[in-house]
Design a protein that fits this description.
This protein has 20 helices and 26 strands. The protein is an alpha/beta fold.
């Protein structure tokens, strides 16, 4: 069918729905409703779709559109749940399970006939992680089922009338419900509030006399202090005492009304240092070893552990972005892992993002964004090069979630890529106005071939895990839920480490690297890529700077995606 996706942003769920419906043979276009209803009307007139699907829509569809066309709305709540803050309420109420409903648009919000619904478990994780994983798995399955039912033509969608379903209206989840009472809330309550707003909108609070949004929350089992006080920092995060413990907060976002020139999410310690350098410098750095004991409950964005003959280097950075500091620390941890006698090394977090490449928020907040761009890219290149030059063991990139740009190239630098079904890859840079680096001109054609590499980087479209496997970007698909991915990878890694042909594979890998180096040294790929990138960074008129600023500040911008209609006037 010809399907038009209407969305408020081409976010992770919209990308996944686009990729998976395209895999099923549908012709899929996308219009972003960022400039009111007219672009949506225009897209409908131009494309004349057989079906309209809204995976993520913050505004109502124009009435003339939903009256004249079947429009399916993805609502992140079970049948009968109504309101704009469904996942927020699920986390606040400690729900163990929740649901996604695909319903037909009509005048009353979330009240249309139901085409499909799915349930999913709610683990103790942040809302954005939940949205990209368990909720997205359920939403994608429900959309596929609803589209199939509509295409077959015999299914009668179920009206929300009579005794089914039980209707529950949930108001917008406002900041007064999120606010932390540091003197009285226990740690579990504080964590629940922080996790319910980890990406958006954050928890409004006050620090050092300024209003700020807190983003992310993780427990701390040892540090203690007076409730509400900042008591330590670690790798850019801050630790804040509760009445019965403490929590780690990785990021802060100054409120726009404070006049801060960088009112967007950045590492918490960086924001504090921009306000009062002396205060930030006085906070103690609570260091922890890479190999943490299994019974510790504390936050660390990089960890190493060994199981038998396999090393596991895990990392989890907010939003998947990797700053200069994070890249350098991860490289140091990688070198630590290489010093351990393991024939197999697995890279990647237990769940959610693998990596999205350089940290645009940190770059945008820097005194010289061009210089920080160069530093961040250089640090990312150093990390990827270290993986490419590892010849004494097999390196596995385990993608629990999405990977994009330089993060996708970090994965492709490994010997094998294992990817959870449901993850989305964006192996390109064009949407941010960049040529790209991280040795993509070596790694991408090596796996997919020159023709496919050119198509992927010029079309700049999301690729499903299944399509990535068909293209040669992924070696093994892991068909599990988000919570089961890490245990599955551990079993697979043990099997790889015990495989009889492992030593021969490592020897062949070393010989192949030497042959590739003789054919064309890695240094030449890096030199040519960086020449293009540095020219962009140094040019104040390059689209990258405007696209980066708009992305970080969540402002509409002209898109470089050939498929997606932004609706710009």
């Amino acid at each position: 069918m010809d399907i038009l996706l209407v969305a408020s942003a081409f976010n992770s769920l919209c990308q996944r729905v686009y990729a998976e419906l395209s895999d099923q043979g549908h012709t899929v276009d996308v219009v972003l409703a960022t400039h009111g209803p007219e672009p949506v009307r225009a897209a409908v007139r131009e494309r004349r779709p057989e079906l309209i699907v809204a995976p993520m829509l913050k505004s109502a569809l124009p009435e003339d559109v939903w009256r004249e066309h079947v429009c399916l709305i993805v609502h992140p709540g079970p049948p009968g749940d109504r309101g704009p803050s469904s996942l927020d309420w699920a986390i606040a109420e400690d729900a163990t399970h929740w649901g996604v409903t695909v319903l037909q648009a009509e005048a009353a919000m979330d009240a249309g006939v139901v085409w499909a619904s799915e349930t999913f478990p709610v683990p103790a994780t942040g809302k954005s992680d939940l949205y990209r994983n368990e909720a997205a798995d359920a939403a994608a399955a429900a959309v596929r089922l609803a589209v199939r039912r509509y295409a077959e033509g015999s299914y009668k969608p179920r009206p929300q009338t009579g005794d089914w379903p039980t209707v529950v209206w949930r108001d917008y989840f406002r900041q007064d419900r999120r606010r932390v009472d540091w003197a009285h809330d226990d740690t579990a309550t504080v964590l629940r509030k922080l996790r319910g707003a980890d990406s958006q909108p954050g928890v409004l609070d006050e620090l050092l006399g300024r209003e700020v949004f807190l983003h992310g929350g993780h427990p701390e089992d040892q540090l203690r202090g007076r409730p509400g006080d900042l008591i330590a920092t670690r790798n850019g995060a801050v630790c804040r005492a509760t009445r019965d413990g403490a929590v780690w907060i990785p990021e802060l976002r100054p409120r726009r009304s404070t006049g801060d020139p960088a009112p967007f999410r950045r590492p918490a310690a960086t924001v504090l240092a921009s306000w009062t350098p002396e205060y930030a410098a006085a906070l103690p750095e609570a260091t922890v070893p890479l190999e943490l004991p299994g019974d510790r409950r504390t936050w660390s964005d990089i960890r190493y552990r060994q199981r038998g003959d396999t090393g596991f280097l895990s990392f989890a950075f907010p939003g998947g972005a990797m700053s200069t500091d994070q890249c350098r620390r991860l490289l140091a941890a990688y070198e630590y892992a290489l010093a351990r006698p393991t024939p197999v090394l697995v890279l990647g977090g237990a769940r959610d993002f693998f990596s999205n490449g350089i940290h645009l928020n940190v770059i945008e907040g820097a005194a010289d964004p061009g210089a920080e761009s160069r530093d961040n890219l250089g640090a990312m290149d150093d990390l990827v090069e270290a993986v490419l030059r590892t010849t004494d063991r097999l390196v596995v990139a385990a993608l629990a979630g999405n990977a994009a740009a330089g993060g996708a190239m970090l994965a492709l630098a490994a010997d094998e890529v294992w990817c959870r079904t449901g993850a989305v890859l964006n192996p390109h840079y064009r949407r941010m106005g960049l040529y790209g680096s991280e040795y993509w001109t070596y790694s991408l054609p090596r796996r997919a071939g020159e023709v496919t590499a050119h198509r992927l980087t010029t079309e700049a479209l999301p690729v499903s895990a299944e399509q990535a496997a068909r293209l040669g970007l992924v070696d093994r698909l892991v068909p599990t839920g988000a919570g089961e991915f890490a245990p599955a990878v551990e079993i697979m890694a043990a099997g790889l480490a015990a495989s009889p042909g492992l030593a021969a594979r490592i020897t062949a890998k070393s010989a192949a690297r030497r042959a590739d180096e003789e054919r064309r040294p890695l240094a030449e790929y890096r030199r040519d890529e960086l020449a293009r990138m540095h020219a962009i960074f140094a040019d104040p008129t390059a689209p990258y700077h405007a696209l980066r600023s708009a992305f970080v500040r969540k402002q509409p911008s002209a898109s470089v995606r050939p498929l997606v209609t932004e609706g710009a006037s």
